[in-house]
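Quick one before lunch.
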Amino acid sequence: MPEQQPAGAYGGGPAIPAKKVTVPEIVQMKRDGRKIAMMTAYDVAFARLVDQAGMDIILVGDSLGMVMLGYPTTVPVTMDDMVRHAAAVSRGAKRALLVGDMPFGSYQTGRDDAIRNATRFLKEAGMDAVKLEGGHEVVETTRALVESGIAVMGHVGLTPQRVAQFGGFKVQAKSAEAARVLIDDCVALEQAGCFSIVIESVPAAVAVLATERVRIPTIGIGGGVGCDGQVLVLHDALGLFGEFKPKFAKRYADLGPIVVEALERYGREVRDGVFPDDEHSFSMKESERAELERALSEPRRPKKVV
Ligand code: KIV
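Model of the 3-methyl-2-oxobutanoic acid complex:
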C-alpha cells in the first residue's frame, strides 16, 4: 500500500500518494493515458499548497518576473531571481516533480553557459529538471543538457521570452506552414532528449497533431484539451494577478478581493484598538506584575559600585 498524505488540511480532496513524482513517471502517464496536471509556484507557502493539492509537476516559471516581480515581460528575469525562488519552492514541495525555467540569456549564449546555469537549478535550488523555450534553435543546447544528465522540458508556440519578435502575446502557428514548423520542432525536441514539451497559445488542432506525433507528453497552456497535460500560471488560476489575463487563463478562485477584504478588516481593527485581543496577546503572572508595579513606584536605587 503506497504511503498517502492526508486529505489536505485546507481542503477535502482525495488523498494523493505521497511518493515523489519522477521524470519516467511523467512519460509513463502519457503511455497510460493519464492526464498531467502542472501548476507554477514561486514561494514556499504556495509550493506547499500546490503540492498538497496533488499537482504532478510544479514549474517555477520565469513568469515570476511578471506576477511576483512586477516586470512587464519575463525578459528581465535573472538566474539569481530564478534560483532564489526555485530554492524556496523546493523547501515547500515534497511530492511534485520540480521544474526550473531557464530565464532569457541563461542558455542562448552557448552550451557551456546553458549547462552551468541548468546545473545551478539542480545543485542550488533542488529542481529535478529545467525548461527552456524554443524549437529547432535550441535542439543542440537541449541535447548537450540531456547528455550532461539534466532532464529537459521543451516549450514551443508562444515563447514569452520572444515577445518582442512576436509583437505581443499572440497566438502562434495559425498558418499551415507555421504549424508544420511547430510540429517538426516538437519531434526534434523529442529526438534531442526532452521528456515533455509545453505548447503555448496555438490552435487546439495544431496541439493535437503535435501530441500525436511525439511519444513524450505535451503540456498545453492555451493549446486546447488535446494535450497530454495542462499548465496554468498560479496567479491567473487564483485571481491574484489582474494586469494581464490571456484567454486561456481560467480563474479557479478569485482570491484578490478576499485578500483585500481581510487586510481592510485588519486595518480597521488596528485603528479601532480591538486587535490584538487577549487571545492574541501574552499574559504575565499576577504576582510578577504586582512586583513590577511596586518596583516602578519606588525611585530606582543607584547600582552599588564595589
Ligand atoms: O513561465 C511560465 O510560467 C511558463 C508557463 C506559462 C508554461 O513558462
